Amino acid sequence: MKSRIAKQRLTWLLPRFPAVILLGPRQCGKTTLALEHRDALGDKAVYLDLERPADLARLTDPEHYLSAQDGRLVILDEVQRLPGLFPILRGIIDRRRRTGESGNQFLLLGSASLDLLQQSGESLAGRIAHLELTPFLANELPPGDIETLWLRGGFPSSQLAADEHTSFEWRQAFIRSYLERDIPQLGPRIPAETLRRFWTMLAHEQGAMLNAARLAASLGVSGQTVARYLDLMVDLLLVRRLPPWTGNIGKRLVKSPKVFVRDSGLAHALLGITSRDELLGHPVQGGSWEGMVVENLLALLPSGAQASFYRTSAGAEIDLVLEFSSTELWAIEIKRSLAPTLSKGFHLGCTDTGATRRRVVYPGNESYPLDRDTDVVSLPALMAELMNRDRLAQ
Question: Mean pLDDT across the stretch 368-389?
Fold first, then answer.
């Protein structure tokens, strides 16, 4: 198993910011990564899990306890359980800045992004860095494991399970736990069965443009309720809402986002797909492969880069558009075929957007030119290209 890519970024951020918040869905490896840092620092770090009553009791007087940890990395897991901590952290950080004390850093771990980003942004603006940890990526696993990653998804307990049955059962239990325990603890009072039906509907339409009216009719709820459900799943980092490209080119562009269940293994569990053979025969195959590729690529995007898709009413289409600057735009087509071909719509889209690099991602291992402007590449090869571009840009 290779080292997590986020580990390098976290190691770089911690000495440079008074606080770092590590976001990601439950069971994606946040605690494991944080404990590696704690173990490396020895007695210069302390770890508190705010879901454990004993650790939570230490924060009965949080300002007193945290102020007493000078010179130590304080790791606070499941920090959304105690949102009142953020103003206290701000006071401790500002006091140390005024007095010139080196003080300690804070590493905060959380599972719900939107509320945490809002709370931390309001209280710790200019004092905190944000980092998202995803489930395993393709280049964090041994070569040749992409098909397994696609079927099982990237959650460590699913990916590393002894067999397909154990992996599938873990994902089913994960889904039940989120619906019946985790989401209610975060506040929303939504029937677990209703939310499961909604999640399953999104899995059935993996990579399709959002049709809120159809989802609302199927669930027997209003369009506003569907929007609220979707916001919740996006906030929990379980669903991706990929926006359409919005450049001003005088074309009639679609306005609805594409929606993906972010982890392909969870999508397959929601659909009852237990094996690769079942997946290859299922209508969701193409959308599922596209979703996995999108997640792996977006996890490597540098700060400030924008991701979208391109589609016009006339049929021009690009699966994924990565915009790094006004002069650098990558057009990426995603194909679940060992002999991929391109439609005229892709070339039209590249012309419309002014794409500076064109790539087709496919499930093979070799890279080769498809035409004068477009290369066919494997997912690991395109991920390496993205990472190399980021290194050269630094």
Answer: 95
